[in-house]
Amino acid sequence: MSRHQYVRNLDYQDAMDEFEGFSEEEDELSPEDRALMNQGVADVQAALGVEASKVTVAQIEESLWHYYYDIDKTVTYLTSKFINPRPKATKPAPQQPNGKSVTSTIDFAPAGLSLELDLHPNWATKCLGLTDDAIPAPRARPSLSHFFRDMPWGNIPKHRETTFIPPPAAPGGLLGGSGAPPKMSKLQALAAARKKKAEEKNAVNDKVEQARMGVKELSVKEPLADKANLSTAGPFSKRLKTSESAAQDRVAPTFATQPTQPEPAQPVEVAKAPEDELPLAKAQPSAFAQSLFGSSSNTRKSEAPRDELPDIQAQHFAPPKIDFPFCVGKAPKPTPTSIELGPAFELSKRKRDDSEGYETTVVLYPNLPQFVRDNFAQPSPDDIVLAAQAQAKGKAGQKTTAQPKKKGTQSTEAVTAGVNELKIDDAPLPKSRNLDVLSEFEKSKSKKTASFVVVGHVDAGKSTMMGRLLLDLKVVDQRTVDRLRKEAETIGKSSFALAWVLDQRSEERSRGVTIDVATNRFETEHTAFTILDAPGHQDFIPNMIAGASQADFAILVIDASTGAFESGLKGQTREHSLLIRSMGVSRVIVAVNKLDMVAWSQERFNEIKDQMSGFLSSANFQHKNIAFVPVSGLQGDNLVRRSSDPAASWYTGPTLVEELENSEPNARALASPLRMTISEVYRTMQSPVTVSGRIDAGSLQMGDAILIQPSGEKAYVKSILADDAPVDWAVAGQNVVLHLSHVDPAHVRVADIICDPAKPIPRADTFTLKALAFDFLMPMQVDVHRGRLHAAGRIEAIPALLDKVTGSVIKKKPKIVKPATVARIVVKLDGLVPLEAGQRVVLRSGGQTVAAGLLE
Ligand SMILES: Nc1nc2c(ncn2[C@@H]2O[C@H](COP(=O)(O)OP(=O)(O)OP(=O)(O)O)[C@@H](O)[C@H]2O)c(=O)[nH]1
């Protein structure tokens, strides 16, 4: 045996074990291994010749293990290590070429800082440009300030240095304050005076116009009620003073019948208090502060007792002029309605204008505590609307909240009971018809359902073939395809028109590759099929895994054109075949495509058939479960109809659709607890939480309570769609859309599992997998893929190597697993994931599939 053969046949597992000294069978080399080792030792000794005596057999054997029996490497190693060991080079202390070390001091003059640097000589030479001679003597501490002397930040003259002047504290503030205007510079004062002048000019005209518009829209229900009320004396006069001064600078909606003139000196009948009693000395609280805390105490002092205030709720003034100085937010839109002021607001100023009748200015001061109380004593606008709606519906007797509630009647118990009744979703629970779904299913005699995934190397023609199939089966019409062809032509991809029937994303169309699994449906006489068109590009293998996890069987598309089959076999033809098998797909139809490009060569077809049969058998597909069909997806030959091309007459077998019909879907776990993997979550008119996916096991019906894992949230099935039609129930194997209720969308994600609340799927962060290795496996980081779920994890342990066929343990605790072998591995995830025995899982690492298998 040559060394190469020797290395190729090497058992990596054993090699790793023994090299690392971990193997329990360390000293028990098999007779075959011992013979190989002896042979290796002899080879090495022969290569070393007379020098062989300088190394022991043990050293040779150890080196051979280390270098995987590579004789050349072993000899090189032994020679350099034991026979002619190189004298150990003593590392000279880092030194300056001229033996000097450089210490430099950088002075930051303005800051008065000095930074001392111990520079490596190379730095001094290369970066600072110091010549060997220029490098100062040790500890010379040369100043580097000269180096920065022309830097503006290094030499700012004192008189140009910036002095930080803190900004003056803002006067007033949110909650009021001194009230004094902010200090202004002369320039600011000048600018402000000019601005004010200009604004005053404009504002007069604007206000007049605004007021006119407002008054036009206002309609007054009743004439002025009681004029005497308008001349309310006493407390209002004080308010008037303060409010007037405050209002002058305020831009507040004002409704007036006359162009606004500077108001004449107040003929206010109500102002009786002496000037010195006016609360002007103290700053007026800001509007915001008043809103929060009510009127300031000095203002309150001047107010009349609440009881004395006139009830202005029922009063209407014509034409009213209302000033809302404390309105925050939108100004009230003038509407043709009466203006009602609740007692929460206090009337502060009224004015009589004889020329225009009564003109009233009302300044509103919210008296917050009272305001709050009274707000709850009166029906809210919502209450009023609800009451009106109820009335309109003729529900006169119905109790509405529009009735004024008596103060203090809301007992603590009532509030508590109300809070207890609060639910996220107050809608009634969906009603269940409590059907016996399994017997309904048996009675239904509906067509059998089957899902198949279309896999294969990139550009093998998967989407084109499915597009053609749908066209020939009249699921899509010719006009649609013609439109797609036109669109494809505009971007120079006319050959992809049929593929666009499935590839509907703009990115897929512009790039000419499938990115995510596309689904579509068609029916034959006996079966309702769901197509899962998977992407072929290796970057999108996780999406292909998601598609394969929902499939009963697969169509493996192979590009028969010259060279394409061969490169596919090294690429995704191989990877997809292994993946689908590991995902539990046992039936595969191999569509040998693009035969039109090789003139329907029977020879080429047979060549591909032979190679693929061997490969698929080695991938554990049974011979009876493999079928081959020569097709042209582009032209539709042998898909739905037999090829009319005379060159293809040699094929007389079934078409692709006939082969699909001959395929039996997997047995459905109808009686098992409900399991449905969510493929999509979205919002619809029917429900804010609509999910789609395939029922993996069990059944469900409308009104069912379900549990969503891993969130553990409960939800209800409001309605079900199967094949876009509403149904009362659905069973395993069906692809359905569920409208859910009583669940927050935040708790529902793609790849979650819907399950029976009585028999929920457990959540786990560690699982044991019986895996087929695609690559070398050892304790390492991996991405775990289960359907659409991706989770980060790590291979924690490899308890055993297993026999591929029987599953019995061949070897315990291997340190490494070779490709194409089966092992039991323990994987630890970073978080909790719904997992249970029987699920199919794929492990990937560094963008490559490294293993796939079944949870134990
Ligand atoms: N001549 C010929 N060309 C074909 C046939 N089938 C597909 N093609 C061409 O092959 C190219 C790729 O076709 P797609 O259907 O996009 O291939 P795909 O396998 O779906 O590609 P991905 O999903 O991105 O991996 C397109 O230009 C098709 O027109 C065929 O039977 N004959």
Automatic annotation (TrEMBL):
InterPro entries documented for this protein: EFTu-like_2 (IPR004161), G_TR_CS (IPR031157), GTP-eEF1A_C (IPR054696), HBS1-like_N (IPR015033), P-loop_NTPase (IPR027417), T_Tr_GTP-bd_dom (IPR000795), TRAFAC_GTPase_members (IPR050100), Transl_B-barrel_sf (IPR009000)
- Residue ranges of domain Tr-type G in the record: 447-674
GO molecular function, a single term: GTP binding
Gene Ontology cellular component?
Answer: cytosol; Dom34-Hbs1 complex
What the entry lists under Pfam families is as follows: GTP-eEF1A_C (PF22594), GTP_EFTU (PF00009), GTP_EFTU_D2 (PF03144), HBS1_N (PF08938)
Key words, A-Z: Cytoplasm, GTP-binding, Hydrolase, Nucleotide-binding, Protein biosynthesis, Translation regulation
Sorted alphabetically, the Gene Ontology BP terms of this entry are: cytoplasmic translational termination; regulation of translation
Look up keyword Cell membrane and say if it applies: no
Where do the TM regions start and end?
none
Reaction equations catalysed: GTP + H2O = GDP + phosphate + H(+)
Q: Which domain of life is it from?
A: Eukaryota
Q: Where in the cell is it found?
A: Cytoplasm
Region described as Disordered: spans on this chain = 230-307, 390-413
Q: What segments bear the compositional bias annotation Polar residues? A: 287-299
Compositional bias of kind Low complexity: 251-260, 390-403
| Family under the similarity heading | Belongs to the TRAFAC class translation factor GTPase superfamily. Classic translation factor GTPase family. EF-Tu/EF-1A subfamily.
Q: How does it assemble?
A: Component of the Dom34-Hbs1 complex, also named Pelota-HBS1L complex, composed of dom34 and hbs1.
What is the name listed in the Swiss-Prot or TrEMBL entry for this protein? Answer: Elongation factor 1 alpha-like protein
Q: Which organism is it from?
A: Staphylotrichum longicolle
Q: What is the lineage of its organism?
A: Eukaryota, Fungi, Dikarya, Ascomycota, Pezizomycotina
